[in-house]
Every structure is written in C-alpha cells, then in structure tokens.
Amino acid sequence: LEHELPLVAVAFAPDGASLAAAHAAGVSIWRLDADQARRDLTFAGTPTAVSWSPDGAWLACPLATEGFQLLRPEDGASRPILGYPTPVRSLAWSRAAQALATAGAFRAVAWSLNAPPLDDPTVGALQTGRPGLVVIDSVAAHPQRDLLAAGYANGQVSIMQLGQRDELLVRHDAGGAVRALAWSADGGQL
Fold first, then answer.
1. Distance between CA atoms of residues 168 and 53, nearest Å
2. What residue ranges in the chain does DSSP mark as E strands?
3. Using one digit for the tens of pLDDT, what is the confidence trace for 132-156?
C-alpha cells in the first residue's frame, strides 16, 4: 500500500477487511482484498490519529488543534466537531451505548451514533458527567456497559454513565495528568 503523503496514523477496521490511514489531507481507506482499492476522504484540519467504531460504520480522527473529524466511510459523509478548549488526545467508542466519547474539554463530550452529529454538532449530544475546572485528558469506554472512565489533567479519575450527570470519583487529584486509560476485557478492572 502506497500513499503520496506521509501517514500519521493507521487503524484496521474491526473486520480486518480495510485499513484507514490519516494524513495531512484527511483519511485514505484501502480494501485489503486482491485489488487493494483506495478511497480518499478529504477534510480540513490535521488529524493526529484515526479510530474505527466497533461496528466499522464510523471513523473518528482527533485533530491537532481543537476537535475531531467524524466520518461515515459508507457514503463519505463527514463533519468536523470543533470548539474544544484543548486538543482531543483521546476518544472512546461505546458499543453498549452506541456512542462516541471524547476528551479535550472540562467534561466528557459524547454523542449517540443513533443520531449522529453530521448536520448539526449538537444533534445526538449526550450530556455526560459534570463540568469541572480541570480538562479531561483521556477517556475509555467500558467493554460491556454504557460506562465511561475519564482521566483528568490533575490525576483525577472518574467513572460516569453515558448520558447521565452523576460521576463516581475513583481517584483523587494525584498531581500528574492521566494520559491513558483502559478497561480489562471483562470490564472488571480499570
């Protein structure tokens, strides 16, 4: 597989049949069959990563500046979701809630993919958790339930239900940013 632009990130589709690659002009998707056909989805902004939804219907690319690009490869529909106070360094797909959650703001920012924000960035918004004074740096979706773990720039970690305001504080301010979170495969450990 070749591309004329330097690639910044790659991700295999969940079914293993396609490979998405982010670059300065957007995303390129290769079918990994005999002809290895390439499809280019262009957009403004500089992607820093690329991620497939668990069902392979969506792609999301955090942007270097203030948001992310949401794409539906099936028909090429795409929309930037902007306005974040800091770059989106982390995003998480929730299979249980059919939702996408992102870091980069003073609360978890999430959308239902049953009503995706392609025409209006407020459509499908799921108010999750409570707004605070510290930016969320990382998010991780529970593998089986509609729960989201959020790691903050001050070391705090909270768990919240997508679309609900309540939060469970599981780690207080520890002084250092939580840059990565992950759940165990059974969801029993964070």
1. 26
2. 7-12, 18-23, 26-31, 38-42, 51-52, 59-62, 68-72, 77-81, 91-94, 99-102, 108-112, 125-128, 136-141, 147-152, 157-161, 167-171
3. 999 999 999 999 999 999 999 999 9
